[in-house]
Specification:
elongated; mainly alpha; 209 residues; 0% strand; 11 helices; 2 domains
Length: 209
């Protein structure tokens, strides 16, 4: 088969994902693993589309059925993430989502390795989202039982009013945004944990896991 141009490839992906969306909206309960088996050359793109499609709130229930055994481990992992969308497709706040799950905000902070004042700043939207390390997003997603895209969407949302935001320090945060590392340095974390986060930020920025 001759190599496709970028335009041809994108056309095919758009055509396939449009069909998936149409099947879903018409109640046909499409399975993304069936699409992947049919179009293995687009596996990565199709799984990324499915995660996005079901994470942004279009879907209200998980896809039915287990991942097909012939899918790659990465594909099976992506499918598992899609199926977790029943838990939540969006969140109103990190602290609020924790409470829904029966987790106190301090317990959430401890579970992901930050302090309660840092959690409050994240909830209030006063930390520049571009500086928040992906490692923290993944940790929050794991504890809150959502996919990382849901946490990232919340952190990246514009929240001009902080009146209803959860905040757990003695004083509310200022409205001016600060970087994640600035917030870490000003937090109540131990010096060792501050150094750990500085290392994580450096690793994430360099493409580390």
């Amino acid at each position: 088969m001759p190599d496709q141009s970028d335009e041809q490839r994108q056309y095919e992906i758009d055509r396939i994902t449009f069909q998936y969306a149409e099947d879903y909206r018409n109640g046909r309960n499409p399975r993304i693993e069936d699409y992947v088996r049919r179009y293995p050359q687009y596996e990565r793109d199709l799984l990324a589309f499915a995660v996005y499609f079901h994470a942004v709130g279009i879907d209200t229930e998980a896809l039915e059925g287990p991942p097909a055994t012939e899918l790659s481990p990465a594909a099976q992992k992506a499918m598992a993430r899609i199926e977790q969308q029943r838990a939540a497709t969006s969140i109103e706040g990190l602290g609020k989502q924790a409470i829904i799950l029966g987790i106190t905000p301090p317990a959430l902070a401890s579970a992901v390795g930050i302090s309660t004042d840092l959690l409050g700043k994240l909830d209030a939207g006063v930390i520049a989202v571009a500086t928040i390390p992906p490692t923290l997003v993944r940790r929050l997603a794991d504890v809150l039982k959502v996919v990382p895209e849901v946490v990232a969407a919340f952190l990246g949302a514009s929240r001009p009013s902080q009146a209803g935001a959860f905040y757990y320090a003695d004083q509310p945060p200022t409205q001016q945004q600060e970087s994640f590392l600035e917030a870490v340095r000003a937090s109540t974390l131990s010096p060792e944990r501050k150094d750990e986060w500085a290392s994580i930020v450096n690793q994430d920025a360099g493409g580390g896991a």
